[in-house]
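User: We ran a pulldown and think these components assemble together. Before we commit to crystallization trials, I'd like a predicted model of the whole complex to look at. Sequences follow.
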Amino acid sequence: MPVVEIPVEKWNGQVHQVKLGGVGGRKELIVGGDNTLPFLKFEGTVPHRPAIAIEVLDYTPPNWAEPLVKAWGDVLKSPVAWAKKAAEYGANAIALRLRSAHPEEGNTGAEHAKRVVTDILGAVDLPVIVLGPEVAEKDNEVLVAASEAGRGQRLALGDCFDKNYRTIGATCLADGHVAIAKTPIDMNLAKQLNILLSDLGLTMDSILMDPTTGALGYGLEYTYSVMERLRITALMGDKMTAMPMICTVGEESWRQKESKASAGVPATWGDQEKRAIIWEKLTAMGLLNAGANIIVLRHPKTVEDVKVAINKLFA
Amino acid sequence: MALTGIEIYKYLPKTNCKKCGFPTCLAFAMKVAQKTVNITICTDLSAESRAALEAAGRPPIQLVTIGGDSKKIEVGNETVMFRHEKTFFHPTGFVYRLKDTTPVDSILQEVQAIAEYKVERVGRFLAMDGFAIENASNDAATFAKTVEAVKSKTDLPLILISKDPAAMEAALAKATPGKPLIYAANKDNWEKMADLAVKNKCPIAVTSSDGLSELATLAEQINKKGIEEIVLDPGARDFGTSLTTLTQIRRLALKKNFRPLGYPIITFPGEGAASVDLEAMLAGQQVAKYAGIVVLDHFSPAMVYPLLTMRLNIYTDPQKPIQVTPGIIQIGTPKPTSPVCVTTNFSLTYFAIAGELEAAGWASWLVVCDTEGLSVLTSWAAGKFDAEKIAKTIKNFKVADNVNHRNVVIPGHVAVLRGELEEELPDWKIMVGPREAVDVGGFLKQNWKN
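Assistant: Here's a predicted model for the assembly, 765 residues in total across the polymer chains.
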């Protein structure tokens, strides 16, 4: 009888552990700490399961796909009600996207951001991730306001790009938050931005990286492989690629035609609602297996099933 | 696993006879390792050495072919753990499971619908790969009749599922020739099943839920009967055990060159999932993490289209990005007044800009230039995305015939091409768009006056 010796990889490195919340009665969320590839507990330690954040917008989304509007209903009109509902659906964190600050989407400013962040922090006891509209000047304006509103609450603030990392990084440092470093599906740029943020004074346990999510069918394979490479490099001992990874799965998946189109698409695409939800679920599964530590989702049914899958992977 | 020159040298006569045309046996070995000359040139190679070299040259994961010549599933022969290390070669086969307890009429309807199903994505047609037929009735005659009926309806590859060698034999009589996969040999029936595989020249799956040693033992016993084409079912059914077990088998094959488990793996995600969606998610995981064949218990376009897309993504060669076919792509339902935007045919560039136009609600004409799969800046730097190329594309695809204006938006990263392009396209007004796709919605809102 052949003797099977299971090959075990011994890595030198470890993903940094990052804590969100956990102050002033707010629930604590810790991600990272793994010293092996995703979920391979037979050869290493995976101290924390990947977390699910539910995305909440700071205004009523004007053009969300019908299945999302149907699933959330009236709470889409109120960020606070929405966040509370997200907590009920089992989110480990709220990812508040300050989209209304975008020049094309209302151009709201610091005052609005401050108010929404304060309201959400008051309404739920989950850790909160605050994301800007991804326009550098506006990010600086609203994220600094959000940072001050949540001082000491250990939020995660993003995104830091190569253009504006100084402002966001500095405000994270001043107010005790975690910075999210976002780079365009590129390992070297990801590492470089981590180094730049570290040079500002942010410690290893205060940075998350967003490698940029390509949805299923829209670059998933690029994100998947960059994440695998980042994780392997981290496990080999490179501390500057060892930040936990956050992926905006819901946002990317639900902006694609496969998720949005209810008519005028081939019959071979099948029912829109079912297809769109599976699209988000498969994007999530792919990136969880590539090493995602936090995934930001949109549809409650995706949240439910991804939770089941994570629990089974973690069992 | 490819042998190094030194490893090959050990098997050579070491006489430096020069009959092969190389000064020394070592020099010859190096050339063999580089695959520039064939080992058979050495006339003094002993039979044992030749056999040993052939065995050592066998891929660490055996290639297995199921089905006939026209439609077949080829799986195995993978060489890496991670797609970025090289690529994954043989895409996961998706197979739908039928049961012989279902009335034949309904089975045939299902078979027809699934066999005809195909969906287009970036110029390729994606489809299901075959059918598994399970002897749920436990009756040999019913099983054979069902297999015969399915076979009459489709030439897609088949997997025959039964524990009973008598039922398998009856079904094989209807399914061959055509190289169905026999599923499965277990510790009780393996000798009879192996005999059937030998007799019918079919690949065979082995199954054991009692650990990898037991599975390796079975595979080795079957291999000793002279069967090379073996598929493994380690019985790992849910998300966690599937990831762990399939990773371990792949590693044993690739890193330890462990022959008894050097075969592709078959999975049944429907058995490890409580709903259709969870089945799809587990199947999706198994595409990425090491399944060769995935047997689905459900089929609907809404479930299968995402899965086939997942397979397309994971099995894309990282060194050869998918290219989009050059031409005019309609985003939404564009009108003659809609914007004309120019981009490259690198799939990621294309998807980025198409996705943003879509998301921003801009029905538009997207003109895709043939830049040989390079992105905007790379192709510009390589001279494959210049004013001449853009002008030629706009003329060749008759963009002007579709619109009642003469405004064209070029990517901000190639703003330098504007002057030249104005000379190439004197009737057109060249507008320099944003550098990043994400800003195109805002750009059009501000600048598109039609």
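The first strand of chain A starts at residue 18 and ends at 21. That may be worth checking against your pulldown data before setting up trials.

User: Thanks, that helps.
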